[in-house]
């Protein structure tokens, strides 16, 4: 669920943010966009160092608040792949996310 929350935030930023001046959960739009390839099927690459670094500075609890969004599949993001991001980035998981 943690990874899903990160990607939901990514989706929301893609929908409403057009510049780095806007951010969500302490992540600028461009940082969130750096994670999209890692959660887009059919054969996503591993998350980049930029993606993992951005996630490491994010407000994890804020990102978790987006975990139940229905937007992910409609934007080509695989929720199962999204849920793997924290582990792939070797990041700690917030409790109850």
Detailed description of the structure:
This protein is mainly alpha-helical. Helix content is about 50%, strand content about 5%. The chain contains 6 helices and 2 strands, in the order H-E-E-H-H-H-H-H. It has helices at about 1-15, 30-35, 50-55, 60-65, 70-75, 80-90; strands spanning about 25, 25-30. Strands 1-2 form a two-stranded antiparallel ribbon. The N and C termini lie close together (about 5 Å).
What can be said about this structure in brief?
The protein contains 6 helices and 2 strands; from the N terminus they run H-E-E-H-H-H-H-H. The protein has helices at 2-16, 29-33, 49-57, 60-64, 71-74, 79-88; strands at 23-24, 27-28.
How do the helices and strands line up, and which of them pair or pack?
Elements: H1 2-16, E1 23-24, E2 27-28, H2 29-33, H3 49-57, H4 60-64, H5 71-74, H6 79-88
Antiparallel strand pairs: 1-2
Helix pairs in contact: 1-6
Beta percentage is under 5%
Number of helices: 6
Radius of gyration: 12 Å
Side-by-side strand order of the widest sheet: 1-2
State the order of secondary-structure elements, H for helix, E for strand: HEEHHHHH
Alpha-beta content class? mainly alpha
* Total number of strands: 2
Q: Average pLDDT value?
A: 77
User: Span from first to last CA?
Assistant: 6 Å
Q: What kind of sheet is the major sheet?
A: 2 strands, antiparallel
Q: What's the shape?
A: globular
